[in-house]
Structure to design on (598 residues):
């Protein structure tokens, strides 16, 4: 099966590039780490307002949000890699070989998901040191990372589509940057719906980030676990993934035709 | 000899309306070293992109190794090797990893691939640096790695788009040597494009001179030069307020000299063709002197491929500009890769 082995080889190549540019990995982790350390300090007494679930520290509340924020913004940079392949001529060099066309895209997506998984693990370790715990244990941790990685995958489709369409890394960065904060703040990532003005609460209840955050929170907070939240998160993320990856595939076919 | 490339009436119009290739027909025989010689913008890269399945042709017919490019692109990709005009290597991978990746993408693997990679790296003289990151290689080393990576799957047909543009003379000579070897010893058919007439002259058994998407002349380098039929004499005149008037008088004066053929006015100066240049130059100097036309230089040479181009188009190929540009880039480190032409 050339699609499997081609995807594998392109995944390994992307991993090597990732490991050999540790500075990029470092910078993309900087923001969630700052959030983790500073936000949880800054807002630590907010839980006393009674708007948060009872008996939960702000660190416990916000860590799932920070995980998703990282997955989201990291995935939104994914398109820069395809712009690089396009502009460096690497894509053409691949396209004159019999390599499976879908594998070029799949290799990219698997790498993105993997990277988000690694970053999430690092954030979780740091959060653990600060006092965070996942109530549902090892299985819950794995499932939480899968949700975040899957969530990232869905959004890297958008980023790849923008990259393929505009062929400009600046545009990918720009659009990623513009999307991140409004979507993050208008979700339940850092603050519960109860604490928001009504209009924001309305937006938040439709925000896909909220669905994913609520699912991770279900796994991490004590006594909150509900299969329904997790299932609905997968449905929402899956729907986004179908749309964004569909658009990516369409644009990619146009480039490689 | 069977044909490995057949192209009939190829036309390529880009989406912005640029007619890059305007009705070119040619064929390449199995085992041949074939070339396209032409200036920047002639349509060389566009032709290669169509032949290597990267670009859909507007019209015409292209058959590579018995496969129609529209119907059996997949089969074509298995038998061709391509080195594009811009050097394309992964800067983050080592030389060896670049080669291995290329092999994997061709469905190769295992010990056979490792052995092949080793052999090719040694062929292009990169064995010592195989484990170093390709981003740290010099321009010439990158080109050689790119060439080697086009050979991993032992293609029977190799497309090379300006493989030596921007290289220093030593690197260029080294590449010429590998290419001759590949063609002569391994029987690989090579389709090369170039802006350098010496390169076309030295390497190609048969070539097409291309300009503005069309064929200007074709044949063996020898037959093309023979067509010029005479030595070329090139003169430059003193610049000044009346430069163009002086030039007109000079042309008139030249016309009156017996034995002077075609007079061509190009940006490189005035060029005339004559059977016996050594005997005619004194006549030219004398005539100019009596007409008060000041010469700043005069030189003569046996015909080159550039003269073929000049006779057909009235312009010179002029790759010098390009060389000067890419050297400047390297000196200031302004670009990692030469700009797309
Ligand atoms: N992608 C493109 N879109 C529009 N015009 C192009 C494109 N690529 C090349 N051209 C134009 O087509 C002509 C032939 O270009 P090219 O094939 O690159 O020439 P060469 O390789 O001989 O220098 C030039 O006029 C060039 O500007
Ligand atoms: Mg070109």
């Amino acid at each position: 099966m050339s699609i499997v082995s081609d995807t594998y080889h392109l995944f390994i190549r992307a991993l090597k590039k990732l490991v050999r540019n540790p500075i990029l990995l470092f910078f993309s982790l900087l923001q969630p780490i700052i959030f983790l350390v500073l936000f949880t300090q800054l807002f630590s007494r907010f839980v006393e307002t009674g708007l948060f679930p009872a008996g939960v520290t702000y660190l416990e509340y916000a860590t799932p949000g920070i995980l998703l924020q990282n997955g989201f913004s990291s995935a939104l940079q994914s398109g820069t890699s395809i712009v690089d392949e396009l502009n460096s001529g690497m894509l053409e060099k691949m396209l004159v070989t019999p390599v499976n066309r879908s594998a070029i895209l799949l290799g990219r997506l698997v790498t993105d998901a993997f990277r988000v998984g690694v970053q999430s693990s690092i954030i979780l370790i740091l959060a653990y040191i600060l006092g965070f715990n996942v109530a549902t244990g090892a299985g819950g941790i794995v499932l939480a990372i899968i949700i975040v990685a899957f969530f990232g995958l869905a959004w890297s489709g958008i980023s790849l589509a923008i990259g393929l369409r505009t062929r400009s890394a600046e545009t990918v960065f720009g659009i990623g940057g513009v999307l991140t904060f409004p979507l993050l703040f208008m979700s339940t990532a850092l603050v519960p719906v109860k604490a928001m003005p009504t209009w924001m609460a309305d937006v938040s209840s439709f925000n896909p980030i909220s669905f994913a955050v609520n699912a991770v929170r279900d796994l991490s907070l004590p006594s909150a676990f509900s299969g329904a939240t997790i299932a609905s998160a997968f449905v929402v993320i899956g729907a986004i993934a179908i749309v964004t990856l569909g658009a990516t595939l369409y644009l990619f076919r146009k480039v490689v035709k | 000899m069977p044909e490995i490339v057949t192209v009939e009436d190829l036309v390529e119009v880009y989406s912005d309306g640029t007619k890059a290739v305007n009705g070119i027909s040619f064929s390449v025989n199995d085992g041949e070293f074939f070339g396209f010689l032409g200036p920047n913008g002639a349509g060389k890269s566009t032709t290669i992109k169509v032949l290597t399945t990267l670009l859909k042709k507007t019209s015409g017919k292209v058959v590579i190794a018995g496969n129609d490019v529209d119907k059996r692109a997949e089969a074509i990709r298995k038998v061709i090797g391509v080195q594009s005009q811009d050097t394309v290597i992964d800067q983050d991978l080592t030389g060896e990893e670049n080669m291995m990746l290329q092999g994997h993408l061709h469905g190769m693997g295992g010990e056979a691939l490792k052995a092949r990679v080793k052999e090719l790296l040694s062929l292009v003289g990169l064995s010592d640096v195989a484990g170093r990151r390709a981003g740290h290689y010099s321009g010439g080393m990158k080109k050689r790695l790119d060439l080697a990576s086009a050979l991993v799957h032992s293609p029977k047909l190799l497309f090379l788009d300006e493989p030596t543009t921007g290289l220093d003379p030593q690197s260029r000579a080294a590449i010429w040597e590998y290419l001759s070897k590949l063609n002569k010893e391994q029987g690989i058919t090579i389709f090369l494009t170039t802006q350098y007439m010496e390169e076309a002259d030295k390497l190609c058994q048969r070539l097409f001179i291309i300009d503005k998407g069309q064929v200007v002349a074709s044949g063996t380098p020898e037959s093309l030069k023979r067509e010029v039929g005479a030595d070329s004499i090139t003169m430059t005149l003193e610049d000044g307020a009346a430069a163009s008037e002086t030039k007109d008088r000079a042309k008139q004066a030249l016309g009156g000299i017996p034995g002077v053929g075609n007079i061509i006015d190009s940006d490189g100066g005035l060029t005339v063709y004559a059977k016996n240049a050594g005997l005619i130059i004194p006549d030219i100097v004398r005539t100019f002197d009596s007409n008060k036309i000041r010469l700043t230089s005069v030189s003569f040479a046996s015909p080159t491929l550039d003269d073929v181009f000049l006779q057909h188009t009235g312009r010179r190929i002029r790759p010098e500009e390009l060389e000067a540009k890419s050297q400047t880039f390297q000196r200031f480190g302004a670009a990692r890769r030469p700009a797309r032409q």
Remarks:
- Chain A has a mean pLDDT of 90.
- The interface with chain B takes residues 2, 5-6, 9, 13, 16-17, 20-21, 88-90, 92-99, 257 of chain A (CB under 8 Å).
- Residues B 44-45, 85, 161-162, 341 surround magnesium ion (ligand 2) (CB under 6 Å).
- The first helix of chain A runs from residue 2 to 20.
